[in-house]
Design a protein that fits this description.
With 318 residues, the chain is mainly beta. It folds into 2 domains: 166 residues, Immunoglobulin-like, CATH 2.60.40; 141 residues. 5% of the residues lie in helices and 40% in strands. Strands 2, 5, 6, 9, 10 and 11 form a 6-stranded antiparallel sheet that branches. Strands 1, 3, 4, 7 and 8 form a 5-stranded antiparallel sheet that branches. A 5-stranded antiparallel sheet has the order 15-16-12-18-19, with no helix packed on it. A hairpin with an 8-residue loop joins strand 7 and strand 8. It is elongated and about 65 Å long.
Length: 318
């Protein structure tokens, strides 16, 4: 392990400290003005797209997660992956940003410990993320952040980029109807909403639940579906957002709606205060329904199901 760390240091010096005999110019930067910042990583001036591909074999595979959404000001998001063959660092950044980050990959991968290594780090995102011209849009017109990962070998040679487009959740959700849950403590609460749907073999009682484990629970033939925007603090990986929203972008179906608050885990905390709201139509400034409460550790003793938790309120739409 000591030898591997030495190799990484030489690679880092090679890649970020190239100087000429007549001009000295540091390639390092604080990275504080970049769209993402990495704890323990080395910030490098310039776009991650700038270094040419000089090692065609060096590859990187980012780890996949159930919740890959980000939002402006998000901190402490775990990002990782595997590099190889024989690469020992990962460069992470957004093409066109003012800086990218070098992260060591020093842990042998269990599937190929001789030539592939893993990395894991904590990433924070700029509060100005939602205003960036570097955001892209997906096929539904929703904003995404194209994060590039590049493997780097011990000689400082870069491989080609693997781009992971992360959905971006803006601070204030908009839609024809928005049901929200907020809380005041670093815990994992989940918003569950029972919605009306056409009777079918999948939903014989004419209802379905939208929640973290079933964000696309409704039949695709039922437009428009309510969609959960973000599973905050999932499995106690605290992201600091402390909010979840179910959003409709078209006209919600008429019928009865039930809003429940599920304390999946209090993550070592004693209690958490919560506040739930429902807004419609679009542009409304006063909630149609709202409720508040406090959950304690005794509330977490039941297994999470689609109807788990306590009822915050119910209402009929329209």
């Amino acid at each position: 392990m000591r030898r591997a760390r030495g190799i990484f240091l030489s690679a880092l010096i090679f890649s970020v400290g190239s100087f000429s005999a007549c001009e000295w110019k540091s390639a390092t930067t604080s990275g504080l003005d970049s769209l993402l910042r990495i704890q323990g990583g080395q910030a490098v001036k310039g776009s991650i797209a700038d270094p040419p591909v000089t090692n065609q074999d060096a590859t990187v595979i980012p780890s996949s997660t159930r919740n890959n959404q980000v939002y402006p000001g998000l901190s402490g998001k775990v990002v990782g992956g595997t590099v190889g063959p024989n690469a020992n660092a990962a460069a992470i950044g957004i093409a066109g940003d003012e800086a990218y980050w070098m992260v060591p990959a020093l842990t042998p991968d269990s599937t190929d410990p001789q030539s592939h290594f893993t990395f894991s780090t904590l990433v924070s995102f700029s509060p100005l993320l939602g205003q960036s011209a570097l955001l892209q849009t997906d096929s539904d017109g929703k904003p995404t952040l194209p994060v590039s990962f590049r493997a780097v070998d011990p000689s400082g040679n870069f491989g080609a980029a693997t781009v992971d487009s992360l959905p971006v959740v803006l601070d204030e959700p908009t839609g024809t109807m928005v049901i929200s849950l907020e809380w005041d403590t670093p815990v994992d609460l989940d918003l569950h909403v029972q919605v009306p749907v056409p009777v079918s073999d999948i939903n014989p009682d004419g209802t379905a639940w939208v929640w973290a484990k079933k964000p696309a629970a409704l039949p695709s033939s039922t437009p428009p579906d309510g969609v959960l925007d973000f599973d905050s603090n999932a499995n106690c990986a605290i992201d600091g957002r402390d909010r979840e929203d179910v959003i409709w972008t078209g006209m919600p179906l008429a019928g009865h709606y039930i809003v429940r608050v599920d304390p999946f885990s209090l993550c070592g905390q004693v209690s958490a205060a919560w506040h739930a709201t429902a807004f419609y139509p679009a542009g409304a400034v006063t909630p149609v329904q709202e409720a508040s409460g406090v959950l304690t550790t005794t509330s977490t003793r039941y297994a999470p199901t689609e109807s788990a938790g306590i009822t915050a309120f119910e209402f009929d739409y329209p």
